[in-house]
Design goal:
heterodimer, A: alpha/beta, Rossmann fold, 2 domains, six-stranded mixed sheet, globular, B: alpha/beta, seven-stranded mixed sheet
Chain lengths: 391, 190
């Protein structure tokens, strides 16, 4: 029996970590991730989760502690946001290269300055190349489900990579909504006890993260690249298995009325749900528009994206971050690169909106789509458009 | 903002620390326990005790709530603290068929002439009820009774479990306060 409850997304996410029976949590609280780690600390303190909670003094230490605990084979979780993710930045490259399956929730937040505690995707884009598997969720149910999936994917012996689950700060983390909790016994079957193949152990010494001279460094990096790319098959396998067990299936590129649509909007994250309302409205008015939503950011789902846009004439890509002095939208830039060599490809219009917690309303999405169609037809001197900016 | 049927959007006005967020959460939980779809969320950002704050509810009896923007065109406005009426335009964006539910010791006519609110009102002296039942002038749970009676957004029975769960041994007193407001609220014709 599953249970449907009204619960804050952060609390449900922490409960998912409990259901996954994590061994070690090392985290530093930061808005808007705070409720996740507070609830985990509470679960550990109350004896409801038999785990070691390490209250570290910074995010750099949080990730360093996670590297240590994952190295001995402990199921390891952390969470952060914005500046916290940036402070742990240099450590992020370590577990991906050392094949340590840490799971981290990122409550996406803008980066200073000016100071903003509110949400956008600047933090997500800044860690794009750290070698982690990166999954993006759009509502509380997906957050809970994908935390469970993240542990299974990360710990699969064909993968052994860290996984980030991105959820929008505030717009997801601080919202109470209906979430279906799975049965613990089903979770236990889906996510069996973890057995890391090469744990640090004084009786059976192994070396991790060694010094690598030029003669071996390229091979080490290539091996890392191959395993991250190949992880897509295992991610698909996991989502498929999750669908069979729990009745909700996930895809690297999620489609919404996109098949055959001539105009597509691509979104990343929770604002995609608001966009769906705009898509419904515009379709009801006779417009041939559809939507695709990027679920898997790394490894990038090249094939699925190409397949999803094959019939489209226009693709409008929404980013919630700016690549300064460059192409503007990071996602749009990647999408352009992924499609460039195709003979038939849509015209791509890059839009930036929703920075630092600014809402994108249904009406705003309608305007973005309508203006995007116009720009695709007439062309623009701009590398990208920014929606709703004053001055 | 949306043409979706069956969707009710509620905007709460209170002051930081008065429990608008808590009550919005309880209301969402009650709706969800009825099998409905609902959201509750605060005006995002740093918490400021005493400052005017907002909280939001969306309740949809038919389909999942997908809009994740603030509520700027509510169906219902709830005012926990009557002192806000002179400093916040609480009816901003309120829909044509909207309604304002106010904690006040004044009558609807007095409120209307004093603040020029051109919407039907529902009034209840929640501060007095809360003082009597809870011993403190914290009206958030009391106001739930007024909201439920006025809007029928959930059944009164559905709010009992969330109140008990949240307040433990104080649950009973909060339920009593809620029930009293449910009885006492004066609802103007639409």
């Amino acid at each position: 029996m599953t249970t449907r409850v009204g619960i804050e997304v952060s609390i449900a996410l922490a409960d998912a970590v409990k259901m996954a029976n994590a061994d070690v949590i090392a985290a530093y609280p930061i808005t808007p991730q705070t409720h996740i780690v507070e609830h985990l600390a509470e679960l550990v303190a109350n004896g409801e989760l038999d785990a070691e909670y390490i209250p570290v003094e910074s995010e750099h230490s949080a990730m360093s502690a996670c590297v240590g605990s994952a190295s001995v084979g402990a199921r390891t979780f952390t969470a952060t946001a914005g500046q916290g993710l940036e402070l742990m930045h240099e450590v992020l490259y370590i577990p991906s290269a050392m094949r340590l399956p840490i799971v981290m929730a990122v409550a996406n937040r803008a980066l200073s300055s000016p100071l903003s505690v509110w949400g956008d995707h600047s933090d997500m884009m800044a860690v794009r190349d750290t070698g982690w598997i990166q999954i993006v969720v759009e509502n509380g149910q997906q957050a809970m489900d994908n935390i469970l999936c993240a542990f299974r994917i990360a710990e699969d012996k064909r993968v052994l990579l860290p996984v980030m689950v991105h959820l929008d700060g505030f717009n997801l983390t601080h919202v109470v909504e209906p979430i279906v909790f799975p049965e613990q016994s089903d979770v236990d079957k889906f996510l069996p006890a973890y057995n890391y193949p090469l744990p640090l152990n004084p009786d059976r010494p192994v070396a991790m993260g060694d010094f690598a001279p030029p003669v071996i460094f390229t091979e080490a990096k290539w091996a890392q690249e191959v395993v991250l790319r190949d992880s897509k098959d295992i991610i698909l396998e996991c989502w498929n298995e999750f669908g069979k067990t729990f009745g909700r299936q996930y895809f690297p590129v999620e489609r919404y009325h996109s098949d055959g649509a001539k105009v597509l909007l691509l979104t990343v994250g929770s604002f995609g749900e608001t966009a769906m309302v705009a898509i419904d409205k515009m379709r009801a008015e006779g417009n041939d528009v559809g939507q695709i939503r990027l679920r898997l950011w790394r490894p990038f789902p090249f094939e699925e994206l190409r397949q999803a846009v094959k019939d489209a004439d226009i693709l409008i890509v929404l980013d919630r971050a700016i690549s300064f002095g460059g192409p503007g939208g990071v996602v749009a830039s990647e999408v352009k690169a992924a499609l460039y060599n195709l003979d038939k490809k849509p015209r791509i219009v890059s839009y930036v909106a929703g920075l630092g917690g600014r809402d994108i309303t249904v009406a705003a999405f309608e305007a973005i789509i309508k203006n995007g169609i116009e720009i695709a037809r007439t062309g623009s001197e701009n590398e990208y458009e920014i929606y709703g900016v004053r001055g | 903002m949306t043409d979706v049927k069956n969707l009710i959007e509620i905007r709460w006005h209170g002051r930081g620390g008065q429990g608008a967020v808590t009550s919005a959460e309880l209301l969402a939980q009650a709706a969800i326990s009825e099998g409905k779809y609902a959201q509750a969320f605060p005006s995002f950002g740093p918490e400021r005790r005493g400052a005017p704050v907002q909280a939001f509810n969306r309740v949809d009896s038919q389909e999942p709530v997908r809009i994740r923007a603030d509520i700027t065109e509510p169906d219902i406005v709830v005012v926990l603290d009557p002192s806000l009426l002179s400093i916040v335009n609480v009816t901003s964006g309120l829909r044509e068929n909207g309604r304002v539910i106010i904690n006040t010791r004044k009558t609807a006519e007095q409120i209307r002439s004093e603040f020029g609110i051109n919407y039907p009102l529902a009034t209840v002296n929640a501060t007095r009820i809360a003082r009597e039942q809870l011993g403190v002038p914290i009206v958030n749970t009391t106001m739930l009774g007024a909201i439920i009676k006025t809007t029928e957004v959930v059944d009164k029975e559905s709010i009992l479990a969330p109140l008990e769960k949240r307040f433990g041994r104080l649950g009973e007193r909060n339920i009593k306060a809620m029930e009293t407001a449910y009885q006492e609220v004066v609802i103007e014709e639409q």
